[in-house]
Amino acid sequence: MDRAAGVRHVWTVDDPTAEAAEERLVEILNDGCLGLMLALGHRTGLLAVLAQASTPPTAAELAASAGLQERYVREWLGAMAVGRLVAHDPQTGRYRLPAAHADLLTDEGDANVAAFAQYLAVLAGVEDELVGCFRHGGGVPYSSYPRFQEVMEADSAQTVVAALLDDVLPMVPGLAGRLTAGIDVLDVGCGRGRALAVLARQFPRSRFHGLDLSQEAIDHLRAEHADLPSLEGRVGDAAVLPAPWGAQSFDLVTTFDAIHDQADPLAVVRGIREALRPDGVYLAQDINTSGTHAGDLDHPLGPFIYTISTMHCLTVSLARGGTGLGAAWGRPAAEALLAESGFSSVSTHLLPHDAQNAWYVAWP
Ligand SMILES: C[S@@+](CC[C@H](N)C(=O)[O-])C[C@H]1O[C@@H](n2cnc3c(N)ncnc32)[C@H](O)[C@@H]1O
């Protein structure tokens, strides 16, 4: 991340020399390809096996340990070695994942960049449709994205679930106590529901409800967490909360990364406001940008956010005839939306584990 920020300081857009421009653009090609290799290494288990190896393996040993085909593993190791992500000893033919890389490329460390790299293939999967949208308008629907809910769940595991009990809940004074006593909770755009499940296990006296447009996500929630009687998932559109939910139904409503890609964000946030009881609270996580291109120049995840927005967040909203806020809508716009939706008090928080998002606590 620091490296990304550093790259943008080094590489200037103001009249670079031909050599500098060529170097930068070739670097982009190489690094884009390495991103695909990281995702493959994550999905096949190669990164995890390499990280856990007690002695550096050969390609054949790594393939055997991971249960994979040696010829493919050898080629993948080639990309990783020439990309200088894996150390290679040409004398012994052995490969080693440096500890610092292992820490950032497996689930054992604080952040798994390889899990995020899966977005590259997810986004590339809709390129043909998106080119059509650039030409003719409209959008690409959620249903077109291969593995979206699965990859989103891996993203959310890092930015939401891992910090939920220790960092997220304490932003709201007294919330853990109220959850312990027993309250009604709704997570709008809950995806596969992992955050809700963590809360349901921790706070058995509370009742947890998830709402998502995606049948696949809710099917997964129901199957994965069938042992949790206090957790239910429903398929529906948050712009009109399905009965019996309505005014003053909940003590806590959450949205994790689920407002900026709405078709009608004002209807959704107004609905959330109305669904809260008078002493209820709305807790929202959404992308933290300045809202201007100039203001985001040095954002450590700037190109990542704008790319995901172009190829997913913006277009899924437009596909439903929506406003198309885009992921880079910005903190000022988020705060204005909360005020326009009738929340009387809003506090904005930044959490150290989550460089991508701002967190909002809003009271009716
Ligand atoms: C970016 S994902 C976030 C998922 C989940 N909150 C997480 O953090 O893993 C946004 C989710 O909102 C859902 N969604 C979008 N618009 C919705 C709407 N109007 N009503 C209900 N769910 C919606 C999508 O299907 C998707 O699962």
TrEMBL record:
Keywords: Methyltransferase, Transferase. The keyword Methyltransferase applies. Transmembrane segments: none annotated. GO terms for molecular function: methyltransferase activity. This is Class I SAM-dependent methyltransferase. GO terms for biological process: methylation. The keyword Transferase applies. It holds the Pfam family Methyltransf_31. Gene3D superfamilies: Vaccinia Virus protein VP39, Winged helix-like DNA-binding domain superfamily/Winged helix DNA-binding domain. Residues 180-289 form the Methyltransferase domain. SUPFAM superfamilies: S-adenosyl-L-methionine-dependent methyltransferases, Winged helix' DNA-binding domain. Residues 33-106 form the S-adenosylmethionine-dependent methyltransferase Rv2258c-like winged HTH domain. CDD domains: AdoMet_MTases.
